[in-house]
Amino acid sequence: MHKSIAAIFISALALPALAQMTPVGVWRTVDDKTGEVSSEVRISDNAGALSGRIEKLLRKDAKQDAVCDKCVDDRKDKPVLGLEIIRGAKKADGKDLWEGGKILDPDNGKDYTLRLTPIDGGKQLQVRGYIAFFYRTQVWTRVP
């Protein structure tokens, strides 16, 4: 009986380390062009598909009541605060990356094909959005 309690305890200690190698959590985004911290995004897992919403706008000039006026889908004219910008990414078989979803840039209303890769032991997230051969990559930092 003592061996099973020890096994449970050791497993419980390992869970936080495993949980960090996932995009699920809250991330501080950084604009890849200016280097400025721009927002916090909460990524959650919904039955194996990731979604992400903007929780905070952090740019100095951010308008907290801004709407996505350049969006062309169901997010058109919706508030940027609370906006779902990540949809449908799924874990790749045998790899620590999530792909196949879309990421929206609310500044230009464009949807990009998405790839998310936890790096630096899960402390950072490489976020790549691409259309054909053109892509943008940002590195987001996990909010403790």
Characterization of this structure:
The chain has 144 residues and is mainly β. 13% of the residues lie in helices and 47% in strands. It has one helix spanning 2-20, and strands at residues 25-30, 37-46, 49-57, 84-91, 98-105, 110-119, 124-131, 134-142. An 8-stranded antiparallel β-barrel has the order 1-2-3-4-5-6-7-8. Mean pLDDT is 88; it is low at 1-19.
Counted by DSSP, the helix tally is 1
Measured between the Cα atoms of the first and last residue, the distance is 36 Å
Strand content: over 45%
Number of strands: 8
* Main pleated-sheet profile: 8 strands, antiparallel, barrel
Q: Which blocks of ≥5 consecutive residues have pLDDT under 50?
A: 1-19
Spatially, the strands of the biggest sheet line up as 1-2-3-4-5-6-7-8
**Helix and strand pattern:** HEEEEEEEE
Shape: globular
Radius of gyration: 17 Å
**Helix-residue proportion:** 10-25%
Structural class: mainly beta
Mean pLDDT score: 88
